User: Fold this.
Amino acid sequence: ICSTRVRVWASPAYLEKHGHPHYVVDLDNQVFLSVTQSLSLNDVPLPSQAGMPVHIKPSIAASRGETFRQLSLDGWGILSFYAFMTHRDRDAGRLVQLFPKRTLEMSQPINAVYYRNTALSARISTFVSNLSECWEAGMGGTK
Assistant:
């Protein structure tokens, strides 16, 4: 359907307890949260010394993104996650983006997943089409 930006986030509670990292290399001493099924989220959109995205080994992994988003909100660690799933938390001050000026432009695709064992029904086709149009109109993951 579209794509969404990936950013690095931490809660104010986590930063108060563990300190705010000043350099990307400081992340080596931090707790990272990630999902077990999307290893690409272990490539953090921050430049290594070679200029490539930093690859992290998560300290805590979960099978659902919503789980580690909530763990991050509760101060358990830093997460590299989709902007569209965190924009309300960011706007409310519950999550803070780390290194916004150093962040590399990385994104992840967002797909519509449905069974395709029969002809594509008009309902599904219309839904996916409308969803794509809404996303392009600014209701989606460009935040």
Summary: Strands lie at 2-10, 32-35, 43-47, 53-55, 60-62, 78-82, 96-97, 107-110. Residues 72 and 78 are 6 Å apart (CA to CA). Confidence is low (pLDDT under 50) at residues 139-143.
